[in-house]
Amino acid sequence: WNLQAAQSVLKSWDINLLNREKKTFFSFLGLYFVFIMLLISTLGILYYNFQKDLMLQTKRLELSDFANEQILKLKALHVNFENDRVYPRDTRFESAIFDSSKKEIFSTFDFKQIALDEVIYLQNRKIYFIKEPESYYLGTKFLVLQVPSDASWHQDVSKNILFYGAGFFLVMMSLGYFLMKLFLKPMRDAIELLDRFIKDTTHELNTPVNAIISNIEMIDKNSLDEKLAKKINRIDIGARTVSNLYQDLTYLVLSHKIISHNEQLDLAQLLKKRVEYFELFANSRKIEIILDIKANPSLHVDRKKMAKLIDNLLSNAIKYNKLKGYIKITLLECEFRIKDSGKGIAKDKIKEIFERYKRVDTTVGGFGIGLSIVMMIANEYKMQVSMDSCENEWTEVSVKWES
Question: Which end of the chain, N or C, is surrounded by fewer C-beta atoms within 10 Å?
Answer without folding.
Answer: C
